[in-house]
C-alpha cells in the first residue's frame, strides 16, 4: 500500500466506524448495533456499506435475522478492538495527568491492564476538551 493510500485511510476512518464494527461483531445484529450507537438502523447500514465500499470488500454477510463475519471483517475487527483499547488507555492517562498523577503511574497502568478487577468511575463522563498551553 502506498504512503498516499495510508494517509487516505487515516483521514477517512473514524472512531465511530470502529465502534460500529466491534459492536456488530459482538451482536451480529444491525438493529441491536444501531440502538447501542444511538443511530437509526438505516444510518448504521449505510455506515457499514460505506466502510465495505471504502475497503473494497464485504465484511459481514447479511442473513435474515443475523450477520456472519467474513475473514476480512475478522481482521478489521481485531485491529478496531486494539485501536479502541488504545483510545481507552489514552483517556485514562489524560485523566490521570489532569488529576495530578503521571501518565505512566503504576495505578493507571494497573487499571488499563486489569479493567475487570479494578473498578473505578468512567473518566469519559468527566473528560472535557481544554486548550493546553
Automatic annotation (TrEMBL):
Tell me where in this chain the HTH lysR-type domain is found: 13-70
Q: Which InterPro entries match?
A: HTH-type_LysR_regulators, LysR_HTH_N, WH-like_DNA-bd_sf, WH_DNA-bd_sf
The organism sits in which domain of life? Bacteria
User: Do you know which PANTHER family this protein is assigned to?
Assistant: HTH-TYPE TRANSCRIPTIONAL REGULATOR TDCA, HTH-TYPE TRANSCRIPTIONAL REGULATOR YBHD
The protein here is known as HTH lysR-type domain-containing protein
